[in-house]
Design brief:
By secondary structure, this protein is α/β, with parallel strands linked by helices. It has helices at residues 13-40, 43-154, 156-174, 213-221, 225-250, 267-276, 278-286, 294-371, 386-391; strands spanning 180-185, 191-196, 204-209, 256-263, 289-292.
Length: 400
Amino acid sequence: MQCDCDSVSSCYVPIVYALITIALVVAVLATGLAVYAVRNRNSGAAEELARNTKRLVETQAELAGRLTQIAEADAASQKALSERLQNQEIAITKTLEERLTDVTKKVGDSLQQSGTKSAETMTKLQERLAVIDAAQKNITELSAQVVQLQDVLSNRHARGAFGEIQLQDLVQAALPPSAYEFQKTLGNGKRADCILNLPNPPGAIAIDAKFPLESYHALRDATDDAAKIQYTRAFAADVLKHVRDIADRYIVPGETAESALMFLPSEAVYAELYANHPDTVEKSYRARVWIVSPTTLMATLNTVRAVLKDATMREQAGVIQTEVRRMLEDVDRLDDRVDKLQKHFGQAEKDLRDIRISTEKISKRGDRIEEIELGEGADTEEIAPSAEISALEPGGSHQA
C-alpha cells in the first residue's frame, strides 16, 4: 500500500475516517437490534440480539485491530519509502554535485586554455604588429630617402656628385689603391673624375661620370610621337655632347690611353641608349669613348684587375729569375764549402787515428816496463832507449 501524500501524518486521515465510519455503522446496527428487541419483547430475540451485538463488537474490535495493523504497516512502508526517497535524493544530490563539479572543472580548464591561447595569440599579434610597425617605419624612411634622392637628382651639381660617389665606390671595391687616382689633373689642365693606372700599352685610362637625366625624363614622359621624336633627338644630342667633351679633355696623347670611359650611373639611361639609339653608340665608338653603366663598369674593372695582375707577374718574373740565379750560385758555393769541410773531417779523422795508435803503443810499453825487474849494470840501460822515445812522438816514423 503506497501513499502519495506530502507527509506520513496526512496518510492516517483516511484510516481514521474509515474507523469512525465502521463504529457508527456498528452503533446503528446495535441500536436497531435493541429497538427491535424492545418492540418484540421477546427474550430469545434479545439474547440473539445480544449475541449478535457481541459478535459485532468482536468483529468491530477485530476490524479495528486489522485496521491498526494496516495503519502500522502502511506507516512502516511510508517510513521505508521516505528513507528510500531520502537516500535516493541524497544519491541524486551527490551525483548532481559531482557532475556539477566535473562540469565546473571542465569549464574552468576550457576557460584557462582559452585564456592561454588568447594570451599567446595576443603575444603573436603584438609581435606581428611590432614587425609591421618596423616595416612601416622602414617604408617611411625609404620614402624620405626616395624624396631626398629625387631632390638630389633634380639638381645638376648634386647629380654629378652622386655619379662621382657611385664611381668611387665601384672602383674602390674592384681595384687595389695603387691602380687608380680620383680627381687627378692631367697635363692639359683638365681634371678627370678617375684615372686607372694601367701599364703601357694601353696606358692610363680616364673615367668621367655623366648623367643626362633631364632629357631622359622628358623622353620618358613624352605622350605623342612629335614630342618623342623631339626629346629623342635632345637625348642623343646631350649624350654626344658628353662624348665629345670626354674625348677632347681626357684623351691626351703620350699621357693617357687612346680611349676613355663615360660612366652613366643609371642602368635605365644606359638601357635606353643602347636599345633605342644605336647611332649614338656607334658615334661614341668612333670617338673612342666607351659608355658604361654600373654593371658593365664592374665587369670592365674586373678585366682591368686581371690585366694589372698579369702585368705585375711579368714585372716580377725578371726579379724571380735573378733571385733564382743568385740562389743557384749560393748553392754552388755551399757545395764547395761542404767539400772543404769534408776534407777537414777526413784529415781530423786521420790525425785521431794516429793519436790512437800512439796511445796504444805507450800503453803497451808501460805494461812492458812494469814487467821488467830492475837489475844492476847494463840492464838499466834498456829501460828507456832514446830511439824508442823519439819514436813515441806523434810525428815519428816508427811503426809498431
